[in-house]
Amino acid sequence: MTALSGERVEVRADGRLLVDGVDCTVAPGTVTAVLGPNGAGKSTLLRVLAGVNRPDAGTVRFGDADAFALRRRDRARLAALVEQDATTELDLTVADAVALGRLPHEGLWGGNQDERNGIVSASLEAVGMAGFADRRITTLSGGERQRVLLAKALAQRTPLLLLDEPTNHLDIAAQLTTLALLRRLAAGGTAILAALHDLGVAAAHADAVVVLAGGRVVAAGPTHETLVPPLIREVYGVDAVLLEHPASGRPVLAMELPGT
Amino acid sequence: MTAPDRTLRVLGRPALLDGIRGSRLTLTGVGALLLVLLAASVAAAVTIGPADIRVSEVWRSIAAHLGLGVSPLSPLRDGIVWELRLPRILTAAAVGAGLALAGVVMQALTRNSLADPYLLGLSSGASLGAVAVVLLGVGVLLPVAAFAGAMAALVATLALARAGGALTPARTVLAGVAVSSLAGAVTSLVIFWTATGDSYREILGWLLGSLAGARWPAVAVAGGALLAVGIPLLLVARILDAFAFGDTSAAALGVPVSAVRWTLLGATALLTGALVSVSGSIGFVGLVLPHAVRLVTGPGHRALLPLAALSGAVFLVWADTAARSLFDPRELPVGVVTAILGAPVFALLLIRRRERS
Q: Which residue, of A228, A233, B174, B357, has the fewest CB within 10 Å?
């Protein structure tokens, strides 16, 4: 069973194929990582799979439904996207920003205020930002802003959650907290797809990986079978050793440039 | 990856106002206050001028014309109130409200705090369209021609700004300067070519704005456009909020981004065209008022749109009153007054922006 799938997805820009026939599936209750070097097409693919940008060819399915046959608003009730480095210069409060996530569920005059406030608080609490509701978003650090964007996506209450580099700008404690939150959401049934540049994070926290290079899938499958040293060498050009964390037993990747 | 957009940083240190911002109380309380202020401003402005009119006479004239059974003023005094001053002042109110609304919408949709119908060339384009119809006798309705001019100018500005680079606020304003200079020059040329009377006064009226000729038909055009465009805008306030984090984020929240952008920018051009066809291009109203109101309401559009419109109306009523009375009996183009007040705010916005090189 798949919660989210892309079949032969193609995206072109200026005559160049950015995403070239990508197949990708995400099962409910799992975290899948999209990996690949810079410029591999991760963000572009994510925007298509989130139902935000229409692909030039191929199909995106949310469950059984063709995502782009749905109304835009219905798509936004099924899939939420956390962008990388989305910013605003508007003087919004944190609570205002998170409340935007309720837009797909409310009419033009807004829905039930109490329900909205409850969901906004719960979303902020989930990302560890409960005390920040009245702060202005322009006064936050990069890491705090990133967590607010995640809370905005949580407020959409969608079964599909797509994240573009969710651990960027976060200090290590916040990274681990965010990853633990993603695991909890997955345990609750959410299907999660995250573009990551950090292979170590993917090795330790993702159930499955899709590895892109030059817009094509070069490998996909369960993390422990797929994210192996020969593949890492082929795609990234670095030597990797797969170790085991002595306490948690999670996989740990150690990497070196070849010949060092 | 999109670089952080630093342009919507607004004026001031609004923390002082935190207690009242964003609440429903702000919208209704400040809204009611502004409505009363607007009514009082209109009544007071009618009394100002060479002929001494009292506020009670203003109400009497209005009541008599509404058929409320009061004894009318003398025909001369009633003419001054009802035929000259009141329509001019109501036109000022409608134009001010409309320009402020247009500014709010353009700022939200282009994520550019410097966006405004005057700076982006729409007003000059609308003037050119209007002048072409009036003087060349093309058989189209004046507001329609002004709308076509505004829309053409908007498209030209955005295309020029985008040619060879990203649509940054600075490029957009520069492109607006180019489009607006050209449209202004052609407007002047057309007037010189065809006009018989005082062409300098007429050129000034279109380029700097003037409400001197505004009578009841002007109220109907400006007020009609304000209601026709402004009321639907109030309904889409939350959609404008969704643009806060950019296009992709708005699309991810279910907003049909390009349809919304072009529909609303088209509506802005329509509104600007109708306003300019009765007032010429009055600058800075769409820039100054939205920024001032944001300090009080915060950036949420549901409060910002109506309150910016009301304060724009009050602002232009007084700007026009100053324009016609400061150097009485000579009259300034009202755009001179709005520029003297607005250009320093524009300068302040530029200083406050942290431009990335």
A: B357
Centre a 10 Å sphere on the Cβ of residue B96 and count the other Cβ atoms it contains. 33
User: Do residues A98 and A157 touch, judged by C-beta distance below 8 A?
Assistant: no
Count CA atoms closer than 13 A to A88's CA, side-chain side.
31
Sequence-distant (≥ 6) Cβ neighbours of residue B234 within 8 angstroms: B302, B305, B306
- Asked if residue A85 lies in contact with residue A141, where contact means CB atoms within 8 angstroms, the answer is no
Alpha-carbon radius of gyration of chain A: 18
Q: Min CA distance, B22 vs chain A (Å)?
A: 9
Q: What integer is the mean pLDDT of B124-148?
A: 84
Region A32-53: mean pLDDT is 94
Query: Which residues of chain B neighbour A76 with C-beta distances below 8 Å?
Result: 252-254
The rounded distance, in Å, linking the Cα atoms of A112 and B54 is 49
Q: What ipTM was reported for this prediction?
A: 0.91
For chain B, the domains span 14-46+55-352
State yes or no: pLDDT of A60 exceeds 90. yes
The shortest C-alpha distance from A145 to chain B (Å) reads: 12
Asked if the Cβ–Cβ distance from A108 to B237 is below 8 Å, we say yes
Q: Which residues form the domain of A77?
A: 4-256
User: Does CATH number 1.10.3470.10 belong to domain B14-46+55-352?
Assistant: yes
Contacts 24+ apart (CB under 8 A), A229-232: A232/A199
Interchain CB contact of A90 with B (< 8 Å): yes
When divided into structural domains, chain A yields a total of 1
Considering only CB atoms, B299 lies closest to which of A92, A103, A156, namely A92
How many other C-beta atoms lie within 10 A of the C-beta of residue A184?
11
pLDDT confidence tier of residue B16, bands split at 50, 70 and 90 = very low
**Considering only B5-19, B98-112, B125-139, B306-320, which range has the smallest mean pLDDT?**
B5-19
The CATH number assigned to the domain holding A153 equals 3.40.50.300
Q: What residues of chain A lie within 8 A of the CB of B251, using their CB?
A: 52-53, 72
Closest CA to A109 of B236, B280, B146, B70: B236
